[in-house]
Amino acid sequence: MTDHSFRSSLVVATLLGTIFITSEASLYGQYVLPDVAAQPMVSSDITSEIETLYRRISDLERKIAETQPEPIPPGEIELLPCVETEPPPCPFSKCVGYDNGFYARTCDMNYMLKIRGLIQFRHYADWRNATSGDDFESGFVVERAPIIFSGNFISPQLKYWYILQASRATGTEFLEEGKLIYAFENGLQFQAGRFRDPAFLREMDISYARQLAVERSYYNSVFATGVLEGISLSKQNDWYRWIAYLNDGRNSGSSARSKDFFQDNADIAISASTDIKFFGEWAQYGDFTSWPDEERAMFLKLAMFYENPEHGDTDPMNDQAGLISYATELTYESHGFAAFGSFVGRHSLVEGQDINQFGGLCQVSYQVIPDHWEPFMRYEYIWFDGFTDVGAGINPVNDSNLNIVAAGFNWYFHRQGFKFTIEAMHAFNEIPFSSPNTGFLADEAGESGQTVLRSQIQLFF
Predict the structure, then answer these.
(1) Which of 224, 220, 165 lies closest to 440 in space, CA to CA?
(2) Calpha distance 145→121 (Å, rounded)
(3) How far apart are CA 253 and CA 178, in angstroms?
(4) Considering only CA atoms, which of 135, 271, 282 is closest in space to residue 204?
(5) Model pLDDT for residues 404-445, shown as the tens digit of each residue
(6) Can you tell me the distance from the alpha carbon of 156 to that of 150, in angstroms, rounded to the nearest whole number?
(7) pLDDT of 157 above 60
(8) Which of 10, 159, 234, 452 could form a disulfide with 439 if both were Cys (CB 3.0 to 4.6 A apart)?
C-alpha cells in the first residue's frame, strides 16, 4: 500500500469516528436529566492532599491532649453522695391540712377554721361506808366528747373559739364555751363570751384534756369559780402577764344555771391575777406535765376573785352571794419532773356570816420512761369552817377537815393526743357533797374513808 492510500484510509477512519462520537453524544443528551451537575475533576495530586489531612489531624489531637485534666490516681477518687430530690409540695398544703387539728384557710391567712375533737372514756369504782343503801358503785361513762371550733375571721387578730359539748348524764348538747378574741398590736388581748376563768386557779385555766390526773381535784370543785360569762383583758410580756376578767359571778356560764342577764346571782364580779415567769417558756405553763425535752421553768401566780351580790331582785337568796377569794400557786418543771403547789382562801362578805375557808394542794410527777410512763402523787387539804360553801344555799358539815391522797400514772402513746390514766384516791374524812366528775360521792353523816379508783382513755385529735 502506498503512502497516498494510507493517508486516504486514515482520513476516512477519522471521519467515521467523529460521526460515531457525535451521534453518541446526541443520544446521551436525550436521556440524561438536565439538573444533574457535572462531576468535578479529581485532582491527580492525591498524595499532597492526604499529607495535608494528616497534619490537620495531628494538630487537633495535640490541642485536645493539652486541654484534658490530669488523670486521677487509683484509690484517690471521692464518691459524692447521691442527692435525692424531693417532690414538689402540694399546692394546697398551706390551705388545708392537719396541725393539732384539721384546718382550712385562705392563702393570705385572714380566714381560718380549725376543728378538733376529744373523747374521754372512763371507768369509776367507788367504795364508801354506808349504813343504808349501796356502799359500792361502779360503771363506765363517756365523760366528754366535745367538738372544738377555732380560727380567725377577716384578720389573724380577730379570733373565735367555741366548744359544743354533750351532758355526761343526759347526752343533751349545749354550748360549753364560746368567745371571740381580739389581739391588739401592742400585745393586749380582749376576750368576750362564755369561757373558763383564766385568772383564778390554774387547775381551772388548764384544759381538761391536759390535766395530770384523770380529772381536776376535789379541791378545785370546792374553790374554783368555774365557767363564767363576761369580758376580759390581758397582756403577756417576756417575764410576766396580767389578766382582768369582769363577769356575772361564780359558775354564771354553767350549763346547769339560768344565764339570762336578769337571772344572775351577782350584780358584778371580777377575777384578776398576775403570773410571773422566773425562767422557762410560757408554753410550759399550758399543762401540768414536764416533757423530757423541756428545760427548767418556774412560775408564780397571785390571784383574787370578788363577787358583789344581787340586791333588790325577787330572789332574796341572791343578797347573800358576796364573797372574796385569794390564791397563790407555784409551778416548777425540769426535764420530766414537775411539781405544783396551790393555796386558796375564801371569806364570806354576807352580813352575819363569819365563814373563812381555805385549802391547799400539792402534786408531783416524773416521767420514768421518757414520753411514756409518768407516775404521780397528789395531796389535798380543805378547811370548810363548818359549811360547804359561803353565801346562799350553804349546808353545815360534820367535819370541817378533809384530807385526800391520790396516786396513779399516765401512759402516753402520743403525748396528750392519746394516753391512758389510772388513779386511786382515798378520803380520810367525810365527803360533804358529791362531785361526780371526780368520782367522790357524798358520805352519810358521820361516815368517812371513801375510796375511788378511776381510769380513763383519752383521744385528743
Answers:
(1) 220
(2) 9
(3) 10
(4) 271
(5) 999 999 999 999 999 999 999 999 999 999 999 999 999 999
(6) 12
(7) yes
(8) 452
Q: Which of 177, 175, 174 is nearest to 195 (CA)?
A: 177
What's the distance, CA 115 to chain centroid?
A: 11
Pairing of β 356-366 and β 188-196: unpaired
Query: For strand 173-183 and strand 136-144, is the pairing parallel, antiparallel, or unpaired?
Result: unpaired
**What is the Cα–Cα distance from 122 to 141, expressed in whole angstroms?**
5
Q: pLDDT tens digits for 169-225?
A: 888 889 999 999 999 999 999 999 999 999 999 999 999 999 999 999 999 999 999
Cα–Cα nearest to 409, from 374, 361, 437, 433: 374
- Whether residue 13 is predicted with pLDDT greater than 60 in this model: the reply is no
Is pLDDT above 80 for 149?
Answer: yes
Burial class (CB in 10 A: 0-12, 13-18, 19+), 15: exposed
Which residues lie across from 331 on neighbouring strands? 299, 340
Give the model's pLDDT for residue 264. Answer: 81
In this structure, what DSSP letter does residue 416 have? B
DSSP state, 38? Answer: P
Q: Is the alpha carbon torsion for 209, 215, 219, 225 positive or negative?
A: positive
Residues 6+ apart with CB under 8 A from 30: none
Task: Locate 106 and state its grid cell.
Answer: 385562705
How far is the C-alpha of 69 from the C-alpha of 269, rounded, in Å? 86
The CA distance from 21 to 18, in Å, is 5
Q: Give the 3-state secondary structure of residue 284.
A: helix
Contact 149, 113 (CB under 8 A): yes
Residue 154, phi then psi, degrees to nearest 5: 75, -45
Distance (Å) of CA 344 to CA 203, 291, 327, 358: 12, 28, 4, 5
Kindly report the number of other CB atoms within 10 A of residue 129's CB atom: 13
List 191's β-bridge partners, or say none: 181, 232
Question: Going from the N-terminus, what domains does the chain have, and what CATH number goes with each?
Answer: 96-460 (2.40.160.10)
- Residue 180 identity (one-letter amino acid): L
Burial 423-447 (b: 16+ CB within 10 A, else e): bebebebbbbeebebbbbbebbeeb
The CA distance from 149 to 152, in Å, is: 10
* Cell numbers given for 258: 339560768
Q: Which three cell numbers stand for residue 91?
A: 399546692
Residues 164, 171: Cα–Cα separation, whole Å: 12
Structure letter (DSSP) for residue 183: E
Question: Looking at the DSSP assignment, which residues form a beta bridge with residue 190?
Answer: 182, 233
